[in-house]
Structure formats: C-alpha cells, structure tokens
Amino acid sequence: MTQQKILAILGSPRPNGLVAAMLRHAVSQAQEAGHSVEQINLYQQNLAYCTGCQACYQTEICVQQDDIQKIVPLLRQADIVILAAPVYWGNVPAAVKNLFDRLLGTAMLPTARFPQPRLKGKKYLLLSACHTPAPWHWLFNQSRGAFHCMDEFFKTAGMKPLGKVVCPNTKKIHMPTPAVLRRIEKILSI
User: Fold this and answer.
1) Do β-strands 116-117 and 80-84 pair in parallel, antiparallel, or remain unpaired?
2) Quick one: 111 exposed, middle or buried, by C-beta within 10 A (0-12, 13-18, 19+)?
3) For helices 178-187 and 18-32, what crossing angle results, to 10°?
4) C-alpha to C-alpha distance for 57 and 45, rounded to whole angstroms
5) pTM of the model
6) How far is CA 32 from each of CA 3, 29, 61, 178, rounded to the nearest angstrom?
7) What is the pLDDT of residues 114-153, one digit of tens each?
8) Cα 115 to Cα 87, 132, 167, distances in angstroms
9) How far is Cα 3 from Cα 107, in angstroms, rounded to an integer?
C-alpha cells in the first residue's frame, strides 16, 4: 500500500467533543496504516473573512496574510483531506464556511461555462454529527444539508469522495458509536 499524505481538519469548536473523537479515530487508523497525517483545528487558526476581492483567482491563494498561508500548502500537498464538522442549523459551522470562502481561488478558477478545478486527483472524507436522531437527521436535511455544503466545495475543487460518516442523536450519546467507528475504519482501509 502506498503511503498517503492526509490533512485532517477539525471544524468543531469542541476539541474534546464527539466530532473531534471521530477525527481522532480516523487519524489513528490512518497512522496505523502507515500514512502521514497533518492536523489543523480551525478554531485555533487566525483566519479573517473573505473580502470578495477575487485576487485569489490569479494568485491561487488568498492575498490576506494570516493562517491561510500555511493551510493552502498543506492542502496542496495532501492526497486525502478528512474534514470533521458538526451540523449547525442544517449546515456547517461558520469556521468551516469561512475556510471554504478563503480557499476559493485555491480550489477553482471561474470560466465562462463551468469552474475549472484546481485540486484534481485528491480525495476527501467527511465526518459529522448532529442532535437529530436517525433517520430524521437525513430526512429533514440536517446532516444532508451540511454534507451538501462540504461536497459542493470539494467536488468543485475536482476532488473525489471517499465517503461520509454521520453520528446522529448526539443529544443522547456523547461518543461515537461502535458502528460509526467501524464505518470510518472501513473507508480508511484504502
């Protein structure tokens, strides 16, 4: 098996919460398989908001000088990105959406017809959790809305999905279930 470079991004404000536990398990599985892993906690990064200047279309990196300057090289070097983010109001937390906004020119170049992807050949895994119990979390667009947002960014960037794992009903459970952990293991047995 070829060693992969993995970028693991925590998009949750709770470093000891359920989503973080899912990401830790994924990182552990990847490291046990011999892959190298870089980790980023978005809530520990200094990331200003996108100003909409669109200079990144030419530079392929945001011109604002903050922690995006260290995140972009990690993203470009990664073979696989694992993004772990909880569901907030049927979507991703603001820190994750802000990251997507700041990576606009890194991820794609707009053209007259369709965006030109700039991160082709990479793969991604999405991990999430929400309060809503199964199957309602999916039927009422709670986790589905968050996954749609995340998929839209990665697919527009030209990346291929490895899978999605959600842990519903987090009002009643505070750690990932064995079934959730097994699903992560199965996807990462790459």
Assistant:
1) unpaired
2) exposed
3) 40
4) 23
5) 0.94
6) 11, 5, 33, 18
7) 889 999 999 999 999 997 767 666 666 677 889 999 999 9
8) 27, 34, 32
9) 24
164-188 per-position pLDDT tens digit? 999 988 888 889 999 999 999 999 9
**Residue 124, strand partner residues:** 81, 161
Q: How far apart are CA 76 and CA 17, in angstroms?
A: 28
Residues 91 and 84: beta-carbon distance below 8 Å: no
Q: 163: part of which helix (H) or strand (E)?
A: strand 160-167
Q: How far apart are CA 65 and CA 70, in angstroms?
A: 10
Query: How is the beta sheet containing 123-129 ordered, strand by strand?
Result: 36-41, 5-10, 80-84, 123-129, 160-167
CA gap 167, 85 in Å, rounded: 11
Tokens of 40: 């980023």
φ, ψ dihedrals at 41, nearest 5°: -105, 110
Tell me whether residue 154 is exposed, middle or buried, using C-beta atoms within 10 angstroms of its C-beta: 0 to 12, 13 to 18, 19 or more: buried
For 119, other C-beta atoms within 10 Å of its C-beta total 20
116: its two tokens: 């030109």
Alpha helical stretches, state H, the chain? 18-32, 56-59, 68-77, 94-102, 104-107, 136-139, 142-156, 178-187
